[in-house]
Design goal:
Layout: H1 6-22, H2 28-54, H3 61-77, H4 83-104, H5 110-130, E1 140-141, E2 147-148, E3 151-152, H6 156-179, H7 181-191, H8 193-198, H9 203-229, E4 231-232, H10 239-252, H11 257-273, H12 281-295, H13 300-331
Antiparallel strand pairs: 1-4, 2-3
Helix pairs in contact: 1-6, 1-11, 1-13, 2-6, 2-9, 2-10, 2-11, 3-4, 3-5, 3-9, 4-9, 10-11, 11-13
């Protein structure tokens, strides 16, 4: 467990939640940026599970996020549903759409699957851009905020904590999945589908199941995004966002969920905090990505694994010091 960055990402979550709880109102901009990073992290965890565990490359995750966002936002604004019901409905419809897309793309692999999912994302983008019910190019405005059992989350700190609590729950659930018997079956499918099928593993069922889970996580992210901002626009669900999500997964490390969380934070915060260097920002951002990939081919998950080893080594030294201290006092 200590070799995969789980301890380090636990500290990251603890630090983020403490920051959200104690940060003053004057730090509203960093809170908003990190809140968006949490929403991206939820999507990226699903995409990393899809690519890292089954080898399926999807460029249509933002399409599922758009379904969750527009459906949840529409139910909140037009039908006045409680946030909890609208949130669940948006996420479930995104998951059901994932079933349809997953079955349709079951026989596709590699670049063909990427093209098919990209086409799906383009179809969803075209629909939300053209349909009148979604607000067209202007998007959907005045969406009610998030609420929990009637308590409306209005402050940036409350929204931040809600987003990162959901991200922590999602991360824990996906790690538990990978540690289970299902995770071992997914590892076999990723390494060799033919050999996995020969061992009696239902490859199709597992691949569709992971595709649905990834779609549901995108739907969750989209539903929270709609209420977080209070408005959504089609531009948020275009090709650039799909590529950015794939970059987060790649920098985090394929198969490394902890690395994906840290990559979502870094790659979301870095461009925002470099706005004062607007002229050099694109070049510096691209150079940082290249440097990360060259120095850490395994992604940020590799860095977290190294950090875990040092943490474990430090914890092993601590009891030794505690045992030797009474002896030293007695000798004196």
């Amino acid at each position: 467990m200590a070799q995969h960055g789980f301890i380090s990402v636990g500290f990251v979550f603890a630090g983020l939640l403490i920051f959200g709880a104690v940060a003053p109102f004057e730090m509203i901009y960093p809170i908003q940026v990190l809140s968006l990073a949490g929403l991206i992290a939820i999507q990226a965890v699903g995409l990393n599970l899809l690519i890292g565990s089954t080898g399926q490359i999807s460029l249509g995750q933002v399409g599922f996020a758009a379904i969750g966002a527009y459906l949840s936002g529409g139910l909140l604004k037009m039908e006045h549903w409680p946030f909890e019901l609208a949130f669940v409905c948006g996420s479930m419809v995104a998951a059901l759409t994932g079933v349809v897309v997953g079955f349709s793309a079951l026989r596709l692999r590699g670049q063909y699957l990427a093209m098919a999912t990209l086409a799906f994302g383009g179809i969803v983008f075209g629909l939300v851009y053209e349909l009148e019910i979604t607000g067209g190019p202007l998007g959907m405005l005045r969406i009610p905020p998030m609420s929990i059992f009637g308590y409306r989350l209005l402050s940036p700190q409350d929204k931040f904590l809600a987003i990162w609590l959901v991200a922590a729950i999602v991360t824990a659930a996906m790690l538990s999945l990978l540690w289970s018997r299902i995770g071992r079956a997914l590892a076999a499918i990723r390494d060799d589908e033919v050999a996995a099928a020969a061992l009696g593993i239902n490859v199709a069922r597992y691949k569709i199941s992971i595709f649905v889970i990834a779609a549901a996580l995108s739907g969750i992210s989209g539903a929270m995004y709609a209420s977080y901002l209070g408005g959504i626009a089609p531009s948020r669900f275009g090709l650039n966002e799909s590529i950015a999500l794939l970059v987060v997964v790649t920098v985090g490390g394929l198969g490394s969920i902890p690395g994906t969380i840290v990559a979502a934070v870094l790659l979301t915060a870095l461009p925002e905090f470099m706005r004062q260097y607007e002229i050099y920002r694109p070049t510096a951002y691209a150079a940082a990505l290249v440097l990360l990939i060259v120095l850490f081919p395994g992604g940020l998950g590799q860095v977290l694994a190294w950090a875990d080893r040092y943490i474990v080594a430090a914890c092993r030294l601590l009891p030794i010091r505690l045992r030797t201290r009474p002896d030293a006092l007695g000798a004196s």
